[in-house]
Amino acid sequence: MGGVVRTAGEERRKNLEQAAARAKENKYRDAIAYFQASFEPDMGLREKMALHILIGNCYAHMSELEEAEGHYREAEAAASQANDKEGLAAALGNIGVMYGIKGERDKALDYHQQALNIHREIGNREGEASDLGNIGLVYQTRGELDKALDYFQQALDIDRDIGYREGEAIQLGNIGLIYRTKGERDKALDYFQQALDIDRDIGYREGEAIQLGNIGLIYQTKGERDKALDYFQQALDIDRDIGYREGEAIQLGNIGLIYRTKGERDKALDYFQQALDIARDIRYRQGEAFQLGNIGIIYQTKGELDKALDYFQQALDIARDIGYREGEAIQVGNLGNIYLLKGELDKALDYYQQALNIAREIGYREVEANALANIALVYRDKGEPDRALEHLEQALKIFEEIGAKIEIEQTKQNIQDIMASMEQNDAPKSQP
């Protein structure tokens, strides 16, 4: 039987071409199979290192973190043995990303700093920008927003200087997140839109989904629920299409938030549970904490306070365990809500004060305003309307500054109710 005989080198080249094509189509399992078929017994250390990184990247895209880290470790070993500094920096940076996703912030920071030092030493500016951005993400999750912003800006400057558009889009989105947390919604929206435009221009679908979700969050805060829902659904469709499970979990949770604010609690609960299941499956602990908190809020609105309390405590434990300070502030506030509903006012006040302190420390203005508004409710129930009004006015000022439409209306209503109650109490009583 005749035919063309391929050499081992030709076969390997074909496998690598097929792997790259499958990865570009987000068919990561197929890509892994082709990459695995490219290994050869007499392969050089640098080639082996490169393959392990490529395979690790595929697993990371599918949120299979243990498999990804295993291949990055193999790459680190091969790079060290070959004295390949560029490969070593890439492996170290990727291991840092895995630790960041798992919530091990100090380990993540150490690996990213090692990678940054190597990239600067060898003059790899794209790698330097990536490491700076990754370090910024660690500081962001620690609540050190100004420090994070500085790292993101350094990364953005480098990406623009070298013309690396995917990196430019990533850093624009990261900067937008900082401004969103600071309550500067319009500024955040501008950065997200810039990032989205670049992602669409270069065909970076994962980035497109991320920015669609970020834009949806801005519209949600502005009270434009249907517009937010449309953006979240677009993002979810892309995440499912490309197999990006972390993104899928995030968007399911976001959609659940919309249905919760619309009063469709059972529908919201279903979306939150789907998101929680995925977060646990892929060991996305920050997402797990967030969805546990969301589920707790549903049970709170159903009047199942002890069940809600359990979910909030689980979420708080995870947030504290991984150093997720935004999440910690949110969950101690949620616990305060339960104790307020139970009538345990001093306990509620203590939790709200903890939330307020953390929010102020990390510059999380939305949570700061919520904590102030909740503290006001405690003073209202304690019969101290003047102190209640003082806190509500502070909360209203922040809500107006960050453009939180729904919260503005609710806070104004609370102020009117308390003032009306004070006037009624001050009115002269009729004598029998």
Average pLDDT metric: 92
**N-to-C order of helices and strands:** HHHHHHHHHHHHHHHHHHHHH
| Structural class designation | mainly alpha
Shape: elongated
CATH superfamily of one domain: Tetratricopeptide repeat domain
CATH architecture descriptor of one domain: Alpha Horseshoe
Draw up the topology in text.
Blueprint: H1 8-24, H2 28-37, H3 45-61, H4 65-82, H5 85-102, H6 105-122, H7 125-141, H8 145-162, H9 165-181, H10 185-202, H11 205-221, H12 225-242, H13 245-261, H14 265-281, H15 285-301, H16 305-322, H17 325-341, H18 345-362, H19 365-381, H20 385-402, H21 405-426
Helix pairs in contact: 1-2, 2-3, 3-4, 3-5, 4-5, 5-6, 5-7, 6-7, 7-8, 7-9, 8-9, 9-10, 9-11, 10-11, 11-12, 11-13, 12-13, 13-14, 13-15, 14-15, 15-16, 15-17, 16-17, 17-18, 17-19, 18-19, 19-20, 20-21
Describe the structure.
This protein is mainly alpha-helical. The protein has a domain at 9-123: Serine Threonine Protein Phosphatase 5, Tetratricopeptide repeat (Alpha Horseshoe). 84% of the residues lie in helices and 0% in strands. The protein has helices at residues 8-24, 28-37, 45-61, 65-82, 85-102, 105-122, 125-141, 145-162, 165-181, 185-202, 205-221, 225-242, 245-261, 265-281, 285-301, 305-322, 325-341, 345-362, 365-381, 385-402, 405-426. Helix 7 runs parallel beside helix 9 (165-181) and helix 19 packs antiparallel against helix 20. The longest helix is centred in the last third of the chain and has 22 residues, at 405-426. The termini are far apart.
